[in-house]
Amino acid sequence: GAAALMRMFELHFAKAAINATKKATVLSLGGRDEQITDDMYSVGPLAEALQQKLLNTSEHFVRSGRRIKKATSAEIAHVRNRFSSASRDLRRGATELQPSARARASVSK
Fold it and tell me: pTM (2 decimals)?
């Protein structure tokens, strides 16, 4: 259904992005538009090494982003727990103070 259609679009755009990256690589290495074919592995070892470097860097960014998100989520959860605990203690302290304040008010009368 909808999930399969979304996956098809993701794959289509991923393939288009890969092809655009390959074309840009060929052009940046001094190639011509005529040299760009569907089989981009024939462009030479330098272009292939550059593509591999780009792929490794992209994967590194993804892994780093996941680690940062995980660490940030854990830190936010920790702060949220501390805040909840502090507000519970504050409410508990406020309810404990109320009877003694009443007792002092009745003694002063």
Answer: 0.35
